[in-house]
């Protein structure tokens, strides 16, 4: 395993980060693994040297944090782990059960810590941008969470670059804790974050920890998987001719190399400018082994072109825009 600093911090994280959306309870999503099936995959991640685990309170509505916490802390000491979790999405029907208000963040961090079974998180991430809460309120609350010892660092995810920059600026103006990471969607079929977000992160020495390197599974050569058939995000984000053409290009490159398409797609992400640690979603030990192999795979210029030549720009993917996104067509 390779280890790198998380942005402009001294925290060392593995170049593969274990994404945990697929662990928890199948009652939440049909493709989610229940606890008995989750534990072998999480333990294999530890065996491979992965120390960075990304959770969210929203995953299986809290059950995901419980399952991941039990599996990891029964195997290794807390100090060997870099544990991250996120807050923003609704955890209940109440008016204060979601968002980035001081009230919700203070309640959410305590609930996450209790579910995971730890006194602190190494990284606490806001899962989206909250237009209904003043940025200063959010950033001061996050600063207080860090100063209380409940989190070591803070990060953000899934927003426009101008929103992220504005939040970071508020922290700078007031001497509050700065974000050290941005978790954004990036893969060969979705590259819009390379326009503004990733260049901003490179300039500010902020870690980029992209998720969905396989485009919700589309680039894994398994477009007919259970997740692709039942995950509404796959249909919303990648149900267009351009995405399918890129998927076929990834398959062609993989066939010529004699490797699995997932390795090619993940290598593409790992070698993009600014990428620090790539999130890996896995529902089997084999998926983790494929991700490990992608660390050593380097695409040639011709292979890169074969994949990239199909790309067509598209609307940004985030919660504020999905309902009005315009489907793209091939150039």
Keywords:
40% helix; TIM Barrel; alpha/beta; globular
Task: Using the coordinates shown, work out and report the CATH topology.
Answer: TIM Barrel
Compute the separation of the termini in Å.
Answer: 39 Å
Q: Estimate percent helicity.
A: 25-40%
Rg calc: 19 Å
- State the name of the first-level CATH class: Alpha Beta
Structural class: alpha/beta
Arithmetic mean of pLDDT: 94
CATH architecture type: Alpha-Beta Barrel
Description of the molecule:
The chain has 331 residues and is of the alpha/beta class. It has a single domain, classed as NADP-dependent oxidoreductase domain (TIM Barrel). It has helices spanning 35-47, 63-73, 102-116, 135-147, 161-174, 197-204, 226-230, 232-238, 241-257, 261-270, 285-294, 301-308; strands at residues 3-5, 12-14, 16-19, 23-24, 33-34, 52-54, 82-87, 121-126, 151-157, 179-183, 207-208, 278-281. The strands form 3 sheets. It has an 8-stranded parallel beta sheet. The chain has a two-stranded antiparallel ribbon with strand order 1-2. Helix 3 (102-116) packs parallel to helix 4 (135-147). The chain is globular and about 55 Å long. The model has no long low-confidence stretch (mean pLDDT 94).
List the helices and strands and how they pair.
Elements: E1 3-5, E2 12-14, E3 16-19, E4 23-24, E5 33-34, H1 35-47, E6 52-54, H2 63-73, E7 82-87, H3 102-116, E8 121-126, H4 135-147, E9 151-157, H5 161-174, E10 179-183, H6 197-204, E11 207-208, H7 226-230, H8 232-238, H9 241-257, H10 261-270, E12 278-281, H11 285-294, H12 301-308
Parallel strand pairs: 3-6, 3-12, 4-5, 6-7, 7-8, 8-9, 9-10, 10-11
Antiparallel strand pairs: 1-2
Helix pairs in contact: 1-2, 3-4, 4-5, 9-10, 9-12, 10-11
